[in-house]
Design a protein that fits this description.
CATH superfamily of the largest domain: Periplasmic binding protein-like II
Shape: elongated
Distance between the termini: 33 Å
Family: Belongs to the ATP phosphoribosyltransferase family. Long subfamily.
CATH architecture of the largest domain: 3-Layer(aba) Sandwich
Radius of gyration: 19 Å
Strand content: 25-35%
EC number: 2.4.2.17
CATH topology of the largest domain: D-Maltodextrin-Binding Protein, domain 2
Number of helices: 6
Domain ATP phosphoribosyltransferase catalytic: 50-204
Strand order of the largest sheet: 2-3-1-4-11-5
Helix content: 25-40%
Largest sheet: 6 strands, mixed
Bound molecules: adenosine-5'-triphosphate, zinc ion
Cofactor: Mg(2+)
Pathway: Amino-acid biosynthesis; L-histidine biosynthesis; L-histidine from 5-phospho-alpha-D-ribose 1-diphosphate: step 1/9
Number of strands: 11
Amino acid sequence: MKLRIAIQKSGRLHEDSIKLLKECGIDINNGVNKLKTEATNFPLEVFFLRDDDIPQYVEDGVADLGIVGENVVLEKGYPLETVEKLGFGKCRLAMAVPKSMEYATVQDLHGKRIATSYPVIVNDFLKKAGIQAEIHEISGSVEIAPGIGLAEAICDLVSSGSTLFMNGLKEVETVLRSEAVLVANSKLTAEQKMLLAKLVFRIQAVKKAKN
Ligand code: ATP
Ligand code: ZN
């Protein structure tokens, strides 16, 4: 009996995910280019995946658990259980417009084209605000969209905001605040739930020690 956890293969969440497991006293050897590895002192198998794929793997039950940004969990929309917020990978999904554009309220987005990699979350935001706008889904370099005439506004992940500034944009709305979370498949067995409780207990102890 083992738990299988999916974490990001490389990128912003990779190091902190590994670090968290290590701080929980779980020994894993993360060899470069490995697809998976096994903990030596805890019944845990670790899969290394693209962050966007993690919710689906957990939903499908290929992995039991995953560490991924709330932004990705929400965008994918699977009914996963968020077990614990992890306190790293903090960022926000922000609406931004060219510095030169006059912007007073969210109404100013009406009729605009908005470029984003998060169409589901943005659509939800616009709907709640009662705004009709055109969403253009693009997968990367969203911040260049206004400069090349693709859109009048963008909605993208930021932490400091310096990338926006460098691209002549200003942040005008916070659409979502996000951090890395531990998610679980909703149909774990009783035995898996006991192992999960053990892991969560350790995570909470690690978090407490940092406060
Ligand atoms: P992958 O190759 O796994 O698909 P990626 O390029 O989609 O990687 P990263 O840029 O590594 O993803 O970001 C992973 C997660 O890190 C984001 O989904 C978000 O939750 C978080 N994050 C924290 N700060 C930032 C930031 N400034 N910009 C983007 N993502 C951030
Ligand atoms: Zn990704």
